[in-house]
Design brief:
With 103 residues, this protein is an alpha+beta fold. Helix content is 37%, strand content 13%.
Length: 103
């Protein structure tokens, strides 16, 4: 990626680039368990699909902890939230509003 894509897509002057990374330790039954292990071995902390290191571009704002790639794109498992709320727990603010405010 760094040797091929990045040189062919330079930053545009006048555009402010901000980025966030995410890391998660998925349970063994997670769809991200195997991909997380592979990426973790090669590049370190990751969200199940993208390493923190490769998510850094421009002004890096930080790493969201215990956040998966699906959480980042707001595809969180809705059944998980339903069960969570049915057991009396309150939903915390997801990562999306955290970084949307910055932009």
């Amino acid at each position: 990626m760094k040797e091929d894509f990045n040189p062919k897509t330079p930053d545009r002057e006048g555009v402010r680039y901000l980025s966030y990374g995410a890391s998660v330790d998925p349970p063994i039954w997670s769809a991200f368990y195997q991909s997380h292990r592979i990426i973790n071995k090669e590049e370190g902390a990751n969200d199940g699909l993208v390493s923190v290191e490769s998510s850094k571009w421009g002004d890096y704002k930080g790493t969201l902890v215990s956040v998966s790639h699906l959480d980042l794109i707001n595809w969180t498992n809705r059944l998980r939230w339903l069960v969570w709320e049915m057991t009396g727990n309150k939903r915390k603010q997801g990562p999306l509003p955290t970084y949307m405010v910055e932009v």
